[in-house]
Amino acid sequence: MTDLDAYVCFKPAVQLRSVAHAGNGPVPDPDSKRFLVDPGNASALESALVLRERGEVRHVISISIGPEAFDNTLAWCRAAGADKVLRVDVPAGLNLDARATATLLADTIFALGGKLVLTAQRSIDESNGLVAAALASNLKAAYLSNVVDIQILNDEVKVSRKIERGHRQLWSAGLPAVVAVDPGSQTSLYIPVANLALAKQASVETLATSTEDFAPPPNLMEQIKLAPGRIRTRRSAVPATVGTAAERLQAVMGTTSKETDKKLVLSGDTDDLARHTLAFLEDKGLLPNPRE
Amino acid sequence: MSNIIVLTEHRDGAFEEVSFELLSEARRMARTKDGNVMAVVLGNGISNMVDELAGYGADRIFVADDARLAHYDPQIWQATLSALCQQEAPSLILLPATTTGEDLAARLAVTKNWPLYSRSTKIKFHRDQIQVVRPVYAGKLQETITSISGLTCLVTMIPGVIGVKPAESNTNATLVPIDVVLPIEKRIEVTGFVPADPHNLKLTEVDVIVAAGRGLGQAENVSLVKELAGLLGGAVGATRVVVDLGWLDRKTQIGQTGTTVKPRLYVACGISGATQHTIGMKDSSVIVAINTDPAAAIFNLADLSLNCDAVQLLPVLIDQCRMRGKTTDDRS
Amino acid sequence: MDSAGREILGNIPAAHQVYFFIITWLSLAVFSAGILVRARLWFQGRTSPFLPTGQITAHTFVEHLRVFIIQTFVQPRLHTSTTGLAHVAIFWGFFVLFVGTNLVFLDHATPLSLLSGFFYLLFSLSLDLFGILMIVGLWIAAHRRFSDRGKVDYVPGYGPGLTLLAFIGVTGFLLEGSRMSLLGSQWFDFSPVGAVFATGFDYIIPDEAEKVSWHRRIWWLHVLLTFSFIAYLPFGRLLHAVTAPMHILAANRKPSGVLSTPYHLEDIESGSVTRAAPRVAADLHWTQLLSFDACTECGRCDDACPSLAVGSPLSPKNTVSELRQLLHQGKSFIQNRPLEEIVTSEAAWSCTTCGACTHACPVSIRPMDLLVESRRAILTSNRIEPGIKKTLNNLQETGNPFGFDPQSRLAWAADLPVDIQPTVLDPGIQCELLLWVGCWGSFDERGQKVTRALVTLLARAGVDYAVLGPEERCTGDSARRLGEEGLFQQMVISNIERFNQHGIRKIITACPHCLNSLGTEYREFGADLEVMHHSEFISTLFNEGSLQTDSSKTAETHERKITFHDPCYLGRHNGIFDAPRQVLSSLPGSSMVEMEASREKSRCCGAGGSNAWFDLGHGRGMNATRYQQAAATRAEVIATGCPFCLSMMEEAASGADETSTITVKDLAELVEERTHPFVVPGDNNR
Hints:
The complex is a heterotrimer of chains A (292), B (332) and C (686). By secondary structure, chain A is α/β, with parallel strands linked by helices. Helices cover 27% and strands 29% of the residues of chain A. Chain A is globular, with a radius of gyration of 23 Å. With 332 residues, chain B is an alpha/beta fold. Chain B has helices at residues 17-33, 74-88, 99-112, 222-232, 240-244, 275-278, 310-331; strands at residues 4-7, 10-11, 14-15, 37-43, 60-65, 92-96, 116-120, 122-126, 129-136, 141-147, 153-157, 174-177, 188-194, 208-212, 235-238, 265-269, 286-290, 304-306. In chain B, a hairpin with a 2-residue loop joins strand 8 and strand 9. Chain C folds into four domains: 78-247, Transmembrane di-heme cytochromes, Chain C (Fumarate Reductase Cytochrome B subunit); 277-379, Alpha-helical ferredoxin (Fumarate Reductase Iron-sulfur Protein, Chain B, domain 2); 394-543, Rossmann fold (3-Layer(aba) Sandwich); 548-673, Rossmann fold (3-Layer(aba) Sandwich). Chain C is built from 30 helices and seven strands. Chain C has helices at residues 14-42, 58-74, 82-109, 117-145, 148-153, 159-183, 192-204, 208-232, 240-250, 265-270, 286-294, 300-304, 306-309, 316-329, 331-336, 339-342, 345-349, 356-360, 367-379, 386-398, 438-443, 445-460, 477-481, 485-502, 512-519, 534-544, 578-586, 621-631, 643-655, 667-673; strands at 433-436, 506-509, 530-533, 560-565, 590-593, 637-640, 663-666. In chain C, the strands form two sheets. A four-stranded parallel beta sheet of chain C has the order 5-4-6-7, with helices on both faces. Chain C has a three-stranded parallel beta sheet with strand order 1-2-3. Strand 11 of chain A pairs antiparallel with strand 13 (188-194) of chain B.
C-alpha cells in the first residue's frame, strides 16, 4: 500500500461566451463570464483518480490558490472524488501571475510533504503554460509535459508524452515530479449538477498565508489591449450588443449572410480543379514534404 | 543590439514548415532593427539539410549534430540552447509552439527568469520592446502584450498562422557547428519513442483528415479516400450515414455522435454538410469540400469549394499528388 | 323456484367440519403471512410522496378507480392475442368461482340466506359456465405451453399453480356432479355441466352408500387442493393475482411522458435532501418495488420495444424480472445492492423512452421509468460516454445540446422578407402567444427550413405571435432523459422565470419533446402553460379559415400519397393523433395512407431518450425499420411533426436504396407548399 499522495492544482478558468463592447474596444462580457472547471485541470484530476484506482497513489488532494470564490471549484473536485480539498487563502483581486502562483503552490505542497503533483498543461483562459514548469523548478522536481499516460512503480514515474502526428515519447523520472497532463487525454468525467450542489454543502479546509511576507516577483509583461479573437473561429460569436430585440435581430441579420463572404464554388475541368486544389494546399503549407 | 535566435524543428530529414515561418519572420523583424538572425538546429545526422535555412534569411546557422540529440531530451537541449544564449545574448528567442518548443521555452523561461509569451500569432518590435498578439479565453479574444522588462524574451508561435514569407537567399550565411552541452543534473530519463500506427491514427491527433460521405456512392470508392489520406499523411474520417452503411468503422465517425476534430486540413468528399456532421469538424483550420450539389451546406464552411464528383476528382488528385513527389525528387 | 337452494356441507360430518375449519384458517394464515412478508419488502422503498401521482382529489380518485376496473376486469391489452384471451378466460373463471365460493361461505356462516330462489339458480349457472370457461382457458394455455413455440417462449414457474387450478376446476365439477347425483334435484337445467357429471356419476357408482363416501372423498380432495392453492398463492408465479390488481390501483397514473421528480434542487442546495440519485432499490418508490412483484413476465413490453427489436442489450422484461429477483433476495440486498449492477449501462442507454413498454403492460408497470432511474444512478458514478458528456456540457455552457452560441439563435430569420420576420420579445414585454422555436429549429440547417415554413404560415394567417430569440434556452428535456435531473431542474427554473417575465401562458411548438416538457413536466415546478403542437394550431387555423389551401399549386396530375409517422412524444405520450392527420388530409392533391403500427402503436424512430446525441452502435436499426414500414405503404412523402423523427427518417432515406424517391417533410413544410401565399401589396421579392 503506497503512501504517495497526488496533489492536483486547481483554479477556476474563465470562460467567455460573448464579447462586450466597451468604449476603448471589446472586453470580456461580464454577463457571459463563467467560472468553470478548467478542462486541463479536470483531465489532471481524472488522471490522479485513475492512479488511485490502480493503487499507485494513496490519496488525491486538490489544492487551489485563491479567494473564497474558488471554493466552488474545489467542491467540484470533491464531487469528482478527491479525498481532500485545500485552499490557500489569498485576497481577491490579488493578481498573481504564473510565477507567483507557482511559488505559493510549491511552498504549500512542500510544507505538506507532497512529492507528486499533477496539473494542466495550460489553462483555457490564459494558457501560458508556465505554472507547471515554474512549480517543478521551485520544488526541485522533474517537469514532465504533455503527458497522456502515467505509471508509477517503486517511486519512479513513467510517462507517455503526446507529440505531433500521433507519436509518443516515453520519459521516466524519480520523485519529486510535476506532471503536466495533456487536456485532451481523459474525457469521461462529468459531475451532475445535483452532486455538485451536495458537495458544496461541505466546507473547504483553508490555509492562510501571511501576504505581508510574500513578495510576488515583478511583472515582466504588460497587457496593452484586448481585441476580438479571430483565430480558427468559423462561426464567430455575434457580439452581445446592448440594444432592443429588434436591433439584435438587425445585428444578426446584418452579420450572417450578407457579411460572411459567400465562398466561391468552383467547377469545371477535373484536371484543372485538381491542380488548383494542390496549389491551394501547397500555399497553405498543408502538403507533406515530397521527400517524406 | 537586436539579435534573434530561432529554434528550428525538423522531422524525418526535413524541416517543419514552421521553422521557415519563424526564420522569415525573424528576418523581417531583424531588418527593422539592423539585427542578426541566428538559426539553431539540434539533431543527429542533420548536417546535410541545414543549408536550406540560408534561403529563409538566417545570418548564422548554429548546428549541433550529435547522436545524443537524436530524440528530444529536455535537459540536453536546454543546456545546449542555454549556453548559446549565454554566448550570443539575443533580445528575442523564437520557438515553434509545438510540444518540443513549448516545453523547452517553459524550462528556459523558468530557469533564466525571462518572460515567455506562448502560442502567439503575431510579433513585432514596438519601439525597443517586443510586442506580441496571442489568443486568450479559448480564442474569443486576442491580447496584445509588451515586454517591459528589457530582458530576453521567449516567444513561441503557433504554426501555420503567420505563413512563410518569400524566401530570400542570404549568401553571407555562416554555418557554425557547436557542441552539445550536457546538463549538470538529469532528472528525466528519455526511455523510448513509440511511433504512431499509420493504420490506427487517432482522429483528434492528426493534422489532416480526409472524410468519406454518402456522395461517394458505393463502398468501393472509400478506397480513394484512404489513398488520399495516406498521401497527405492523414487519417480517414466518415459521416454517420457512411458508418451505418458499413463502409467504414465506427471509430472513424465524425460529428455529433462521433468524434469532434480540429485538424489543420479537413477534406470532405461527397459530404452534404448536415449539422450533425459539421458540428464535429467546423473548427478545422482549412476545409476543402467536394460535392456535386452546388448548394450543399458544406460549402458554407469550406475554404475551398469544389463542385464536382468526388469519385472523378479524387483519382486525378491522387495522381497529381504522386507526380509532385516524383518530380521534386527528380529535381533534387 | 323459491325452493331452489342447497344445503351447505350437507354430507360432511361435524368432526370433519372442525378439521375443515382449521384448514381454512390455517391456509388463510399462511396466505396472509406470505403477502405480509412480500409487503415488507415493497415498503423498503420510499414512501413519500405517498402516491407518485401527487395529490389525490375526487377526480383523480375516480380516474384511478376507472382505470383499475378496466385494467383488472376487462384487460384490454390482452385482447389482441389468443393466449391473452385465454388469460381473460382463466381470470374470469377463477374470479367468479372465487366470488361463488365466498358466497357459499357467507351463506353457511352468517344468517344471510343468499343462495336461494332465482339468485341461486343464477349462481349455479354462472359457476358452471365460468368454471368451464376457466378450464377452457387453462386448456389453451397448456396447449400453447407444449406447442413448438411454447417450448421456446414459456415463462417458468407457472406450471404448479396452473396445474393446481386445473385440478381444482375439475374436482369442483366432480364434486358438483357427485352432489347432484347424491341429492337429486329438479334444477339440473341450471347446472348443465354438473348435470353431465352427475349422469356419469350415477352410471359409474350406482350404489347410494358408495355415492356418499365418494362424495366425501371428492369433497376433501377439492378442499385440500383449494386451500393448498390459497396457501401457495403468495409463493409462486400466481402471486400476481394479488399484486397485479394492487399495483394497478396504486400505480403512477401520470402521462407516460412525465418522468418522476425525485427531489427539488433547492432542497439539495439548502441541505435538506442529501440523496441526489437512486443508488439502490430502496431508493425507488414502494409502488415501483410492488410493480416488480406484479410482473408476470408476459413479454408484451419486450415485443413492443423498438430497441430490443434491433438487437440492443435492452430488454424491459428482463430489467423488471431481475429487479424482482433482487426483491426475493431480501431486505439487505434491497438496501445495499447498487442498481448499476442490476441494470447494465448498455441496456440503460439503449432506451429511447418511447413508452411502448409502458403502454403495452397489462398491469401498469413502467419499465421506461426504471431505465431512467438507472441512468440517474449511472450518472453519479461520474464516468460516462464522451457523447453524453459532450451533450450535457453543451447544455450547461450554451443552453442547447449542439453547443452553438446562443446569440445566433435567430440566424434562421436572417434572410426572411420583412413581412415574415418574427417579432422578437424585448425584455419585460408581455407576450400573448409565443412560438417556441426549439434548439433544432434554431440551429440545425434542416430544422431552420421547418421553422421558416412555420413562420411563413403564421404570417399568412395573420397570427400575432412572438419569439424569444437569443433568450431562448433548451427546455432541458434531453438532460432529464439522460438522467441529469439537477441540470434539468436548473433549466426549468430559469425558463419559467423567463416566461414569467414576459407573462407567457400560451405556446406553439413544432417539437413534441418541447411540447411534452413545457406542457406537462414543467407543471410540477409551478408553470401553468398551454402548449400546442403546431399541427393542432394549424388545424385551428384551417377551421377558422385563416389559412386556405391552394389547389392551383398541385402540379402533379396524380394524387400524392402521404404517410404520417406518429412521433412517440406527440402520439403515445401526449395523445395527439388526429390533429396532424386532419391537417394533412386537408391538403389538396394528396391522400393519406397509414403505416402498419401507427397511432399508439407507432414504432419509435430511434432518436428519443437522448439517443440522438450519442451512438451506441445499433446503427441503422430503428430508423431503418421504421423507414421500411413507411416505404411499404408506397407513399411518396413521409410526413412527421418532430425534429428528431425528421432527421432520423431522412437519414434512413439517404442510407437506403438510391432509387427510392421518398421525401421526408415536416407537416409545416407540406402545408406551406399547399396554401395561398401571403401577398403584401407592392412587395415582390420572395
